[in-house]
Design goal:
Blueprint: E1 6-7, E2 13-17, E3 21-26, E4 30-36, E5 41-47, H1 68-81, E6 90-95, H2 108-122, E7 127-132, E8 137-143, E9 149-154
Parallel strand pairs: 1-3, 6-7
Antiparallel strand pairs: 2-5, 3-8, 4-5, 4-6, 8-9
Helix pairs in contact: 1-2
Length: 162
């Protein structure tokens, strides 16, 4: 496996040409990976929340990768700059784990998954793979040279005292 070139923190995204590798760690957050097989370019986002929760952005508001709808738009902007149609890319979705099992009210992961799916569909992306939900945290890597994604899921464990 090649060396990690970019590590995404929550709310970040990165888009670049291969070779190289982008990685991140996920809990309730979700990550969208994109890769274009003919151009050998792609990107990844690390989404924290479904949406800003306020009205429409104003004309001067910058897009913010922390939110599913805006993060997908940022990735689309990178594709537009290169005259690449979203439908020609391999889109994959990961994460959205419930980090507080048993408390449905805290299940931001499920809301992140649905928001990312809707944003991808709205822009014409077709999901070719996903690993979402559950109670696992995930370590994720995208190889920009070939579009491969490596995923390591770690079970949520609870420590109890006897």
């Amino acid at each position: 496996m090649p060396a990690l070139d970019v590590f995404l923190h929550p709310g970040e995204f990165h888009f670049a040409a291969g070779p190289g590798r982008i990685g991140t760690l996920l809990g309730s957050c979700v990550s969208v990976t994109l890769w274009h097989p003919g151009q050998f370019i792609g990107g990844m986002s690390h989404i924290l929340l479904p949406a800003r929760g306020r009205g429409h952005r104003g004309p001067l508001d910058a897009l913010d990768a922390r939110y599913a709808d805006e993060s997908v738009e940022l990735l689309c902007n990178e594709l537009r700059r290169r005259h690449i149609a979203p439908a020609s890319c391999q889109a994959k979705l990961f994460g959205g784990g419930n980090m507080f099992p048993g408390t449905r009210a805290m299940d931001i992961g499920h809301r992140n998954i649905e928001a990312a799916r809707q944003a991808l569909a709205r822009h014409g992306f077709k999901l070719v793979a996903e690993h979402v939900g559950g109670t696992s945290r995930r370590r994720l890597y995208l190889d920009l040279a070939n579009g491969d994604v490596w995923l390591a899921a770690h079970r949520h464990t609870t420590v109890s005292e006897d």
